[in-house]
From TrEMBL:
Family: Belongs to the polyphosphate kinase 1 (PPK1) family.
Catalytic activity: [phosphate](n) + ATP = [phosphate](n+1) + ADP
Keywords for this protein: ATP-binding, Kinase, Magnesium, Metal-binding, Nucleotide-binding, Phosphoprotein, Transferase
Protein name as annotated: Polyphosphate kinase
GO biological process, one term: polyphosphate biosynthetic process
Any Pfam family the entry gives: PP_kinase_C_1
Amino acid sequence: MDGTRSSDAPLGNDNAAPQESGEAPPLRVNRTRTGIHAKPAPSPEADLDDPSLYFNRELSHLQFNIRVLEQALDPSHPLLNRLMFLLIFSSNLDEFFEIRVAGLKHQIALAREESGADGMPPHQVLAEISRIAHEQVERQYRILNETLIPALEEQRLRFRRRTQWTDSQAAWVSKYFAEEIMPVISPIGLDPSHPFPRLVNKSLNFIVELEGTDAFGREGGMAILPAPRSLPRLIRLPSELSEPGYTEYVFLSSMIHAHAQEVFPGMEVRGCYQFRLTRNADLAVDPEDVSDLASALRGELLARRYGSGVRLEVADNCPDRLAHFLLTQFELEEADLYRVSGPVNLTRLMSVLSDIDRPDLLYRAFTPGLPRQIKSDISLFTQIAQNDILLHHPFQSFSLIEDWLQEAADDPDVLAIKQTLYRTGADSPIVGALVNAARNGKEVTVVIELRARFDEADNLALASRLQEAGAIVIYGVMAYKTHAKMLHVVRRERGALRYYAHLGTGNYHSKTAKLYTDYSLLTANETLCEDVHKVFQQLSGMGKPRQIDTLLHAPFVLHDRLVSMIDREARHAQKGQKAQLIIKCNSLTEPQLIRALYRASRAGVQCDLIIRGMCCLRPGVEGISENIRVRSIIGRFLEHTRVFHFHNGGKPETWCSSADFMERNMFRRVETCFPLLDKKLAQRVRKDLATYMVDNCQSWELQTDGRYRLLEAGDAEPISTQETLLYAYAVKP
């Protein structure tokens, strides 16, 4: 197998062949050591709490981001989508530093280091993160500069650097700078009366070295030049100034570099270097100290922009003395410094994907399908009452849910609507339908999770919009995030009240429904709908946990029932019966669930785990986990479905859930897990899972030593799960 398609160096391999001095490692050979060191396999009698059986959560998270970066070099993706993956890696890494690295630093600062099941102390994890992140950031910029930019230029898409501007382009840039940039730029000279400014999280800035005397007689020294956040980071050159047939862009940073002298008239600019500071962006809201969650969050959102520094990115040509000066200002160490060969704010380049009209360089467009039984001329209430409806997004249309909610808003027989909202957006059709329903006199109750990370401001806005329309808005339970995806409708039919419900694995967000894989169930099943009703009553009222018959919900019974169902498979195996389970979710980190899976494997249960991101379970350990296979699917769509299937002695059970196998989902969130009671729908989902298990195009298999190996078709027929599902469910072109 060609090593360029693998990520097959052991994560703890200290014996990898060294590179010759000065020679950069090959881009596609991801020899990423993560500190997850291979240890001797424990005996079958080994303690399942042994730290050697667990991978570190943060390092596993970082490995997922590296698998995303790998897609930038995969020629099976269209070129602009390869660029998109590279930019997503930047965005993911930003959040990783803002939340995960910031959390580790906070523990160390307070001298309250807590190790997870893997036993690695935070200071050691932080050191490994720094080493790996430095390697991968350097690799990312080499991919951009050596692979993607040349490939884009071959497609007549060009990024002009300052040294490449023609005279006419330079004149246009000069005019643009004078008219668009100069009026909004605010240089900050550094002297005793102008201390180092507080800079906004992830903002683009320049440190400038000056020589001479200014208008007030002050001697030159240093200045900070913040780039206006209102300006685009990439500016398209007029077609008449571009080479014929080319679409050309210049970077805002290049424009500022080229004209820094004009910002400091009469002074000599000796150097101008871009930098960006990443800050701690986690929100700290203490349930015991908050009487008004919305007001507390508004204050925290302002503070988020100025949290403590966690990472400094500087241009690779920035002199050491200036880089160290910045580190001192932000109270950071050498390990927190990242020198980059290109723009320090790559995520802002995402705008180019929507600006370029080149469908030939993007994934082909598709039209989401609908189940064959859906009839456009029949009320959705009638169709749901006849049979449960299961949708698999984005292959099948999310608009059906929006249409049903709008029908409910307009239906005079609908009396009440209740819904949870986690990530939605204030301008969502879902919110519009709820507003319409409230204005039509329906009893509308919405449980909004204000603390959905990085969506807090949007959720505050939509809460205000719903309240103004007359809806009852509840912010859930203070100590537990409401992460469940539920919609409940009460309708009068033939003189009696009937319940309808929607349950999903993903958010009520029209945009992400086109990018994330998720399941949606529309049902009128009496028991299931009654359970949804009880969960809403728990959220809005007070009292002891209610008896819920069909749903599994966190933080009450979900964790224990999952452990019980895994142990049930183990008992079947011990009796010599066929035993199998398939778990598909985003992350697997919760130790008790991992121990249950180890017990199942030891009993002989075939355990197939499809874990997109973090996985702390170590597969393939003799006597412990040799019956466990773990794979991660990375492709066009973000795998987001949570599905749990158990063979159960020939009486299979298939569940969908809003929860991952993580501590926070099991113990600190309100989650739901719902069974597929319709046997045909359950069989359909099992067929989908079977497709994931034979994918040989986008599947990365986790090895015993912690590395991920890309599964390739070789001489076999290539099978891409996402392409297969597109063909199966989307509208045929």
